[in-house]
Design goal:
2 domains, TIM Barrel, 252 residues, Glyco_hydro/deAcase_b/a-brl, alpha/beta, two-stranded antiparallel sheet, NODB_dom
Length: 252
């Protein structure tokens, strides 16, 4: 009887201990700003960040329209000596602004695709998805001389079909882990805070260089300075992928 009672207590203790360890694990992950992404067992996935202890991260800029904001952003990157960043360009915008595309390329920045029509790919059928990616691919390849292999889909929208089609076409779908929310125009200080407070090793940071984002170029100098003061090095998305374990988010 004594042994049975103690066995029951031991079982209770083990259950309590397991629950406590689980809670500690969650708290530790939250403390270190770690997002847990499952890669899934079948098919490709979108990349949000990479696992690395090195203080490297990627500044990324989406452009789909306008020409007033991108110039100042490129000027700031040049003035601050930022030689590596990734620009996701929509092909209609690129075709209308070949001189700006050339400047981005000549500055040595990585260029990825932001698609052709600005529409949610998950709402398209398979043939339409392939056609959209192909149109953008051909235009960007013609303008830059280099075929892109990274794509950030319009609105960041995708499903498993999009991932599989993109993968078959030689593309990796890239999302982000830190959103500057510059597209909301919340104020320069808030944009700086959104980025600097959330940035972490292996991070992919979302910003925009379209004209609708009126405060990005005002926030960018402080973002660069404060991240550097924390010891961060700026690299391209491709460099992050090549040098670290990928974190992905499984699509249901």
């Amino acid at each position: 009887m004594f042994w049975i009672v103690n066995a029951r207590r031991l079982k209770q203790y083990l259950i309590i201990l397991t629950a406590a360890l689980f809670a500690i694990g969650i708290a530790w992950a939250e403390r270190d700003n770690i997002s847990i992404f499952t890669s899934g067992k079948n098919g490709p996935n979108a990349i949000y960040k990479v696992d690395t202890r090195e203080k490297k991260l990627a500044l990324t800029f989406d452009i789909s329209w306008g020409e007033e904001r991108v110039g100042p952003i490129l000027d700031i990157l040049e003035q601050k000596g930022v030689k590596k960043a990734t620009f996701f360009l929509s092909s209609p915008w690129s075709k209308s602004h070949p001189d700006i595309v050339k400047r981005i390329k000549d500055m040595g920045f990585e260029i990825g695709s932001h698609g052709h029509k600005y529409t949610n790919y998950s709402s398209l059928n398979d043939e339409e998805i392939q056609a959209e990616i192909t149109k953008a691919h051909e235009i960007l390849k013609e303008l830059t001389g280099t075929p892109p292999n990274l794509i950030r889909t319009p609105n960041g929208d995708f499903d498993k079909r999009v991932l599989k089609i993109a993968d078959k076409m030689g593309y990796t779908v890239v999302q982000w882990d830190t959103d500057s929310k510059d597209w909301l125009n919340p104020g320069t200080e808030q944009i700086i805070k959104n980025v600097v407070d959330s940035a972490h090793p292996g991070d992919i940071i979302l910003m925009h260089a379209s004209d609708s984002c009126k405060q990005t170029h005002l926030a960018l100098p402080a973002i660069i300075e404060q991240l550097r003061s924390k010891g961060y090095e700026f690299v391209t998305v491709s460099e992050l992928i090549a040098n670290a374990k990928i974190n992905t988010n499984e699509v249901q």
